[in-house]
Design a protein that fits this description.
The chain has seven helices and two strands. The chain is mostly helical. A two-stranded antiparallel sheet has the order 1-2. Strand 1 and strand 2 (18-20) form a beta hairpin.
């Protein structure tokens, strides 16, 4: 960390790594993701991507900048106030999907197969079939 303000605004995370306070705040908010995700999984075509992003953000091997983006996307899904209310049938989750798609386009390379496996297990989805070649 090169900026003094950035160093001052850090806190020690659960895994002992120092993170900016904004990441810690989004991480706390994102803890509500799993219950909401399990409740709505059948309605969300992007549920597995969201769960994989969350597991990636929780992974101690994920760089702090990627954690920041992924926790922010997960927190946006959890917070009750967003641009389109989630109760609007057909439109309610489009803003959440857009936020997640943007986050994954920026840091999606950090979402590994192990995160996707954990997401499929959480959502009780079948493992993808291997190539038939």
């Amino acid at each position: 960390m090169s900026d003094a303000a950035e160093i001052i605004n850090t806190v020690k995370g659960e895994d002992g790594v120092y993170l900016p306070k904004s990441i810690q705040r989004n991480e706390r908010t994102a803890r509500g993701l799993i219950p909401k995700l399990l409740r709505l999984a059948g309605q969300l075509p992007f549920a597995d991507d969201l769960a994989a992003a969350y597991f990636c953000a929780r992974d101690p091997r994920t760089p702090a900048k990627a954690k920041a983006v992924l926790f922010a996307a997960a927190a946006y899904f959890v917070i009750p106030v967003d641009m389109l209310p989630d109760v609007l049938v057909g439109l309610g989750f489009t803003d959440d999907a857009a936020v997640l798609a943007t986050a994954l386009s920026v840091v999606g390379a950090h979402v590994k197969e192990r995160h996707r496996v954990m997401a499929r297990r959480l959502l009780r989805l079948p493992e993808p079939l291997g190539d038939a070649d």
